[in-house]
Design a protein that fits this description.
By secondary structure, the protein is an all-beta fold. Helix content is about 0%, strand content about 50%. The protein has no helices and eleven strands.
C-alpha cells in the first residue's frame, strides 16, 4: 500500500507561482511512475503531468509547469509558474507501478485557487 499526501496548495494571484509537493510512504518510491491530475468544479478530472523515465505534460500546462521527483525524499513536485485563473482546481497526486497501466494510488488533493 502506498500513501500519498499532497501539500502546497493555496490562493495565489494570476501570474504567480506555486510548488506542490506529494510525499509518499513506502520504500520503493523510485519504482513508481508518478502523476499529477486536477479537477475543477463541475468538470472531470484531467491529466496535468507525469514522470517516470521521462516527463509528459498536458498541452494546457506545457512551458508553465514542471514535474520533478526526489527519490531520496520519496517526494514528487509540481512547480507551477505563470498561473492562470483556469488553473484553479483541486490537484491530486497519483502513483502506479505499471507505467502503461492505470494509476493505483491517489492522494486526497490540495486546493489551488488563482485569482484574476
Amino acid at each position: 500500500q502506498v500513501r500519498l499526501v499532497e501539500s502546497g496548495g493555496r490562493l495565489v494571484q494570476a501570474g504567480g507561482s506555486l510548488r506542490l509537493s506529494c510525499a509518499t510512504s513506502g520504500r520503493t518510491f523510485s519504482s513508481y511512475a508518478m502523476g499529477w491530475f486536477r479537477q475543477a468544479p463541475e468538470k472531470d478530472r484531467e491529466f496535468v503531468a507525469a514522470i517516470s523515465r521521462s516527463t509528459d505534460y498536458a498541452d494546457s500546462v506545457k512551458g508553465r509547469f514542471t514535474i520533478s521527483r526526489d527519490n531520496a525524499k520519496n517526494t514528487v513536485y509540481l512547480q507551477m509558474n505563470s498561473l492562470k485563473p483556469e488553473d484553479t482546481a483541486v490537484y491530486y497526486c497519483a502513483a502506479k507501478l505499471d507505467p502503461f497501466g492505470a494509476y493505483d494510488y491517489w492522494g486526497q488533493g490540495t486546493q489551488v485557487t488563482v485569482s484574476s
